[in-house]
Write a structure and sequence with these properties.
heterodimer, A: Aldehyde Oxidoreductase, domain 4, 3 domains, five-stranded mixed sheet, 28% helix, B: alpha+beta, Ubiquitin-like (UB roll), 16% strand, oxidoreductase (chain A), AldOxase/xan_DH_MoCoBD2 (chain A), molybdenum (chain A), Carbon monoxide dehydrogenase (chain A)
């Protein structure tokens, strides 16, 4: 292993451009003749669009066009799709209303676009948008699941009676009822998982350019998966056939799931660019981002857990209501079903599980995957239940968990998943040691002496990552396969370009993927370029989400590298007149074992391209591609422990100690892995303490700026204490499990368990604001 | 339209812009320095921080005309040729960035913070003073480490005197 190979804390190659202001983000793209788009958006949560008068806007300086939803329909631009079919328990397909890119007749959430203004400058477009007069006929709105399911609730879509998208279930209902009927103890809880807004720091942006000479379109966009965007834009939205549409996702400033989806604005900019025959740029402002980026979470659940007299879990029964917002976003249907309920076994032996999930339309922004996507909701529910059960039984929460841990693998849960490898006691032990669990009572006493309430809370999470085996997800309703592709191109001088379908928007692929090549060939990472994010360069790819780029994306590179290496060995053996089996690769050189014969990799590469002296019948060149389809999900897991101190006079919670002990399998670059955990923890602690999305009853988003939606700041968070235990993933060649989401998945219950421990009061909803915590301490009604 | 002239990264620049043009739009669009970013509309996120006459300013909160005649330093002007500023180097060394979008503002804020405190910083001070800069990727852990390390290194030459 070289200094830049697998397992090394290599500083990132991509940093140079970011720290010197040379990053190239979508809003940095400028084209000759570029125009600007500004959308006219609904101020109402639910209304009929009676008329749109653009005459005044069209007369304003610089205005080129005002386009409406009716014109989209006339041009046969397709409605937005949901790419994962989920069937209700009665076998019927989910019930979906049409989701147009601009609403021609009815608006269903505040912020939904009804028209777009194209003008020479951004300010001209913005000014003219204010002059577009839209007459609405207001309708009653429902923003919560409870309101949308009420008997007199307004109906959002005629296709979905009662605002119900599906009533899905998983698990064995009869076996679960039997488990409960024989239970010595039953623990019940009502659990809400608060709605969050993803908030990558770079707002979404799109630059669309129609080239009339070639009748082709190019889109620069803030996407985590440009190839998926091209596929969907071509196959479903009628924008252009794939070979006439290039999608480029350049530097992208964070995604966290919210940049997976193909949004109305990209569709409209592409369509409008062709109509006005000019390039068009649109960049979201922050309030627009709050109003249009897919939100996350928003579950309301009732959960019951059955235990025997020895406190072993017998069964789990869950009924969850998922708020989907006004339309079904691209992967929304899968989040509260196959990404949530399939993880309800957690780290525990639970013989019987039955979960029902009702998906519900409301007059709010569409909800889809946000960092963790379903797995944070499952973890929060289970880990609140376990802590609560331990408190009710008078047991140490550590002991109750340990008693119920899965300890032999592979382990088949009652909810589809087959866990391949893990050691949950190891990560728990590592966390207990790091936090000094035995010393907690003394720390609590010391805090009390300072007038502070100190509490400790645990969370033992598991997640399913590395999504996913194409055949398996296909059988569950996915519209796409979830493999990944890679191409390794060796240049004649021995430098290497890796083309990958993964997309880096903060993950550091330009470094970690190069480390893999360095490990294999012994060349420096400066000899390797990672090419991604451009459908004209990379043939295809499924993109980056679900902690899949290591486990799936790098596995594809390994497969391609295997082929490159096999051919290079043949060439080297031929040139050095040795047996292929005697060739060893070390430090960038091909050597003949047991001799002093060797040649640098660069000369092998050159020989491949000169073709002067290759084995008989061998094609020149050294370039190989591969597709990798995973054999299973991967199962990162770990234990998080949070200690808080609360000021009883103000209700303010301070996270004073946070330990994370994770098992991610093989780590390519521990520095980058730790960075991923830090960021995930901040988002999870943000969910637990700070971030709450608030709608008024009539559907106005009250938290639509950074003055109203509390983003975690540096002084809201501690420095984190990170530890790792390792069981390699047996399902992929590198043994990688994935690390991108764990922090956001595991941390919220640890925080809430710590707060409820500190205040001696088990009811606490997220975000645990000072007002709520103060009210709980002082026995008052919570100020929501 | 108004002709607005200023010195940016040591270079005299001039452009005709609408009176309502913000300094950040002047930098990004009129003179094509796209390293300074816009992350919010409410002066909360700090992605747009630059130095105006030596002090950190949120360039989304200042009109370009207000900066007329001033000397502005942006992220593009921080390094000396190929030699990174110690704060830039520390952000790379400590993995203080992921997606890179908040990074220019973070670095410009950190430089100003270290200057104002004469390099005498502790973790609590750094965290408190980063109130006006939001990062969604790093959880701030490595940003704080980077700033503390850069402050210590920038202090050393002075201490040696």
């Amino acid at each position: 292993m070289g200094m830049e190979g697998i397992g090394q804390r290599v500083v990132r190659k991509e940093d140079k451009r970011f720290i010197t202001g040379k990053g190239k983000y979508t809003d940095d793209v400028k084209l000759v003749g570029m125009t600007h788009a500004h959308f006219v958006r609904s101020p109402h949560a639910h209304a009929k669009v009676v008329s749109i008068d653009s005459a005044a806007a069209l007369a304003m300086p610089g205005v080129i066009a005002v386009l409406t939803g009716a014109e989209l329909v006339a041009d046969r631009i397709g409605n937005l799709i949901c790419g994962w079919m989920v069937h209700s328990k009665d076998g019927s397909p989910m019930k979906m209303g049409a989701y147009p890119a601009m609403a021609p007749e009815t608006v269903r959430y505040v912020g939904q676009a009804v028209a777009v203004v194209i003008a020479e400058t951004k300010n001209q477009a913005r000014d003219a948008a204010e002059a577009v007069t839209v007459e609405y006929e207001e309708l009653p709105a429902a923003t919560t699941v409870a309101a949308a399911l009420a008997s007199d609730a307004p109906q959002l879509h005629p296709e979905a009676p009662g605002n119900r998208v599906y009533e899905w279930s998983i698990g064995d209902k009869a076996a679960t009822e039997t488990a409960f009927s024989g239970a010595a103890h039953v623990v019940s809880m009502d659990i809400t998982n608060n709605r969050l807004v993803p908030n990558p720091m770079e707002p979404r942006s799109a630059v669309a350019n129609y080239d009339s000479g070639d009748d082709a379109l190019t889109l620069w966009t803030t996407s985590q998966n440009p190839h998926v965007a091209r596929l969907v834009l071509s196959a479903f939205y009628n924008i252009a056939p794939e070979h006439k549409l290039r999608v480029i996702a350049p530097d992208v400033g964070g995604g966290f799931g919210s940049k997976i989806y193909i949004y109305p604005e990209e569709i409209v900019c592409l369509w409008a660019s062709r109509k006005v025959n000019r390039p068009i740029k649109w960049t979201s402002d922050r309030t627009e981002a709050f109003l249009t980026d897919a939100h996350g979470r928003d579950h309301v659940s009732k959960a019951e857990m059955a235990f025997d007299a020895d406190h072993k879990i017998l069964g789990l029964r869950v009924h969850t209501y998922a708020n989907f917002g006004a339309y079904m976003s691209l992967f929304s249907s899968s989040v509260p079903t196959y990404l949530y309920a399939t993880l309800l076994s957690g780290q525990y032996v639970i013989p019987a599980i039955y979960a029902e999930v009702d998906g519900v339309y409301t007059n709010t922004v569409p909800v889809d995957a946000y960092r963790g996507a379903g797995r944070p909701e499952a973890t929060y529910l289970l880990e609140r239940m376990m802590e609560t059960a331990a408190r009710q039984f008078g047991l140490d929460p550590v002991d109750l968990r340990r008693k119920n841990f899965i300890t032999s693998f592979p382990y088949q849960t009652p909810v589809i998943m087959t866990y391949d490898a893990g050691d949950y006691n190891a990560s728990l032990d590592a966390a207990l040691k790091a936090i000094d669990y035995a010393g907690f009572p003394a720390r609590k006493a010391a805090a009390a002496a300072r007038g502070k309430l100190r509490g400790i809370g645990f969370s033992c999470y598991i997640e399913a990552c590395g999504i996913a085996p194409s055949k398996a997800v296909g059988s569950l309703g996915a519209g796409v396969g979830l493999w990944e592709s890679a191409e390794v191109r060796v240049n004649p001088v021995g430098t290497v370009e890796v083309l990958t379908g993964s997309h880096s928007h903060g993950q550091g692929h330009e470094t970690t993927f190069a480390q893999l090549i360095s490990e294999r060939l012994g060349i420096g990472i400066d000899q390797v370029s990672i090419v991604h994010g451009d459908t004209d360069k990379v043939q295809f790819g499924m993109g980056t989400y679900g902690s899949r780029s290591g486990a799936v994306g790098m596995s594809a590179i390994v497969k391609a590298m295997d082929k490159v290496e096999a051919k290079a060995r043949k060439i080297a053996a031929h040139l050095m007149e040795a047996a292929e089996g005697d060739i060893v690769i070390e430090g960038g050189e091909f050597k003949v074992a047991g001799t002093d014969k060797k040649m640098p990799f660069a000369l092998v590469a050159l020989a491949a391209y000169t073709g002067h002296n290759l084995p008989d019948g061998m094609e020149p060149g050294l370039k190989e591609g591969a597709f990798y389809d995973p054999t299973n999900f991967t199962f990162p897991a770990g234990t998080y422990v949070c200690e808080v101190e609360i000021d009883a006079d103000t209700g303010k919670t301070e996270v004073v100690n946070f330990v994370a002990a994770d098992d991610f399998g093989r780590m390519i670059n521990p520095m980058i892995v730790e960075g991923q955990v830090h960021g995930g923890l901040a988002q999870g602690i943000g969910q637990a303490l700070l971030e709450g999305t608030v709608y008024s009853d009539d559907g106005q988003l009250m938290t639509a700026s950074y003055m109203d939606y509390c983003m975690p700041r540096a002084d809201d968070l501690p420095s984190f204490d990170l530890h790792h235990t390792t069981t390699l993933c047996p399902g992929n060649p590198l043994g990688i499990k994935g690390c991108g989401e764990a922090g956001a998945i595991g941390s919220p219950p640890a925080v809430i368990n710590a707060i409820t421990d500190a205040i001696g009061h088990n009811d606490m909803s997220m975000p645990a604001t000072p007002a709520k915590v103060w009210a709980a301490i002082h026995g008052r009604a919570a100020a929501e | 339209m108004t002709t607005v002239s200023m010195t940016v990264n040591g270079r005299q620049v001039s452009a005709d812009v609408e009176d309502r043009t913000l300094l950040v739009d002047y930098l990004r669009n009129a003179i094509s320095l796209t390293g300074t970013h816009v992350g919010c509309d409410t002066s909360q996120c700090g992605a747009c921080v630059v130095h105006v006459d030596g002090r950190a300013v949120k360039s989304c909160t200042m009109l370009a005309v207000q900066a007329a005649g001033s000397s502005v330093t942006t992220i593009e002007g921080l390094a000396t040729g190929d030699e990174l500023h110690p704060v830039q180097a520390a952000f790379r060394e400590h993995h203080g960035l992921q997606c890179g979008f908040c990074t220019p503002g973070m670095i410009m804020t950190a430089v100003d913070m270290i200057r104002r405190h004469g390099g005498q910083l502790d973790e609590a001070t750094v965290r408190h003073e980063l109130e006006g800069n939001i990062c969604r990727c790093t959880g701030y852990h490595n940003i704080v480490k980077a700033i503390l390390d850069a402050a210590a290194k920038m202090q050393m030459p002075a201490a040696a005197e």
